[in-house]
Amino acid sequence: MSTKLKDLLRTADLSKADIELLLDTAAKFASKPLRSKKALSKKTVAIYMTKSSTRTRLASETAIAHLGGTPVFLRGDELQIGRGETISDTAKIISGFCSALIVRTFAQSDVDELGRCASVPVINALTDDDHPTQLLADWLTIRENFGKNISGRKFVYVGDGNNVATAWLIMGATMGAHIVVATPGGKWAPNSSVVDAANKIANKSGAKIEVLNDVKAAVTGASVVYTDVWMSMGDSESDRAEKMSALKPFMVTPELMALTSSDSIFMHCLPAHRGEEVSAEVIDGPRSVVWRQAFHRRTTIQSLLYHLTRGDLKGNN
Ligand code: CP
Ligand code: NVA
Asked: By its UniProt entry, which NCBIfam families does this protein fall under (predicted)?
């Protein structure tokens, strides 16, 4: 029996074939954004966010418009959900008015519940645990730079073991890549359940997963160095001083980039804090692809909406 992926709730929901299809279509949308301008014609897509966003909101609203649809932006504090209406009731109402729901919030369990209760596709646009739409843009950017043959290349995430690090590990494992995550040990390392999940996927895909504390060893010979903010949305301010001090050696500097391969690129999901996780010379320098990466948030969300609403994705089950 063939299965159909209804929602994108986690990076792990996507198979390699799904990702290849999404990236192929996204590459087409990059050169011709209006090529499927009737796909969402006369349809509305809700975007519900309880956390800040610049790129994901802009990318989602423009992607929906390019597909001929109308975005409806819903702020968490303006919905009745903020006054105690249940997630389940909210999901039913959104499903009655809209053809899909893009959601950014804190708890992954809330997005999972929206997926269960909504009859329309639900897309995770970032939770405390994961950031699947970001990784689609990242992987398209990687493919543009290195092509589809990634054998012998090392892709390294440096910094906080957060939601983006999780998505990096799972996406890289699915794509059969050599993935390295370099973080301080203990509290700021990726969750062991995430590393176990990545290794399980890697056993089938042929990926190689490494989680290191030695940042210099990690980036030596790397094709990609990727980092993210050290304080994520929802992180406790009481941890700030301890976290900044633990992460200091993980700042991406020109000295660190000098250890990478001669054709290496620097990536960052943005927003960036120059002087914390990355120096200005690196993010504003010639190896940085962060603006192309940000542009691909729109092309990949457009592709995701297109294929998910048509029922083209198969998922992993
Ligand atoms: N990278 C990303 O998700 O950016 P925003 O928080 O601006 O949406
Ligand atoms: N890890 C960051 C990513 C922002 C796009 C956060 O969750 O705030």
From this structure: orni_carb_tr (TIGR00658), PRK00779.1 (NF001986)
